[in-house]
Amino acid sequence: MRNIHMDRMAIDGAQTVLRLVGPDADHLRGVHLSRSAFSGIRNPDSIACTDDLTFRRVIVNGQEVPPLPHP
To answer: What are phi and psi of 70, to 5 degrees?
Structure first.
């Protein structure tokens, strides 16, 4: 899958924000999460086989998620 855009989400009480696990042979690409707020999140994200993941203005449990470094 490519070019997944999630914008203006507001979620309270989820297990995790993201569970992104693409196939080994065909990674997920171009996943963008922006202008969203998540509270009550209990576990860290689970991300594997995912390329070009970006966060912009995303708040998790009151803290802004820093931009991820590009590989």
So the answer is: -80, 140
Structure tokens at 30: 């171009």
pLDDT digits (tens, 9 = 90+) for 4-32: 999 999 999 999 999 999 999 999 999 99
- 33/20 Cα distance (integer angstroms): 12
Answer yes or no: are the C-beta atoms of 24 and 45 closer than 8 Å. Answer: no
Query: For residues 49 and 29, what is the distance between their CA atoms, to the nearest angstrom?
Result: 9
In the beta sheet, which residues pair with residue 20? 47
Query: Residue 67 CB: number of other CB atoms within 10 A?
Result: 10
pTM, 2 dp: 0.83
Q: CA of 64: how far to CAs of 2, 23, 31, 34, in Å?
A: 25, 29, 18, 11
How many residues does this entry show for the chain? 71
